[in-house]
Design goal:
- This protein is mainly beta.
- 8% of the residues lie in helices and 32% in strands.
- The chain has a single domain, classed as Oxidoreductase, molybdopterin-binding domain (Sulfite Oxidase, Chain A, domain 2, Alpha-Beta Complex).
- The protein has three helices and eleven strands; from the N terminus they run E-E-E-H-E-E-H-E-E-E-E-E-E-H.
- The strands form two sheets. Strands 1, 4, 5, 8, 9 and 10 form a six-stranded mixed sheet that branches.
- Strand 6 and strand 7 form a beta hairpin.
- The chain is globular, with a radius of gyration of 18 Å.
């Protein structure tokens, strides 16, 4: 029996529209495929590679010495939660590519991670201030369960593209599926177009 006037718990309403099918999440859910890797900062490296050749590599201290950005963005998970005004600190992919001194003709990148995860991205989705290597969330060091010590941050795409425990980008000429894309997730993942799965 349901008492008159009882309509169950209602989710809080966001201050602005969300992408189709999303709800406003006020926590930070943990979703991980596989075991969370434990990565020493002394051993952590981030590399840009091409054709399996290492073009540029940064240690943790070298990464922190690069110009940093503070980013406030909304993030959207394919499992339908969205977080508004999340605060991050990191370095833009533009800065890393510029610091490498490379001419970058490739049209795509493959992000690869400690633990073996990969995800593909068009170069246009990681340039011009659209993507970062991030190591702080809401003013605190990024926890390992959320991808720390550093994760990719590509906030305008579904959050599986913001690869946890990132350790590099491989420049590639042709698009190729990463971990979740091989399992049927969309090759790009635009939340406003609901590009969740192949065929969307």
């Amino acid at each position: 029996m349901v008492s008159r006037g009882f309509f169950g718990l209602r989710r809080p309403q966001p201050s602005r529209p969300l992408p189709p099918g999303q709800y406003w999440e006020q926590g930070f859910p943990v979703l991980t495929a596989g075991v969370t890797p434990q990565i020493s900062l002394k051993e952590w490296r981030f590399s840009i590679t091409r054709d399996n050749d290492e073009l540029k590599t940064w240690t943790w201290d070298e990464m922190l010495a690069l110009p940093q950005s503070d980013i406030t963005v909304d993030i959207h998970c394919v499992t339908k939660w969205s977080i508004l005004d999340s605060r991050w600190r990191g370095v833009s992919i533009d800065t890393l590519l510029e610091a490498s001194g490379l001419d970058v003709p490739e049209q795509f990148v493959m992000a690869y991670c400690y633990g073996g995860y990969t995800t593909n991205l068009p170069m246009a989705d990681v340039r011009q201030g659209k993507a970062y290597v991030a190591w702080e969330f809401n003013g605190e060091p990024l926890e390992p369960r959320h991808g720390g010590p550093a994760r990719l941050l590509v906030p305008h795409l579904y959050f599986w593209k913001s690869a946890k425990w990132v350790r590099g980008l491989r420049l590639i000429d042709k698009d190729a599926p990463g971990f979740w894309e091989q399992a049927g997730y969309h090759m790009r993942g635009d939340p406003w177009n609901e590009e969740r799965y192949w065929g969307d």
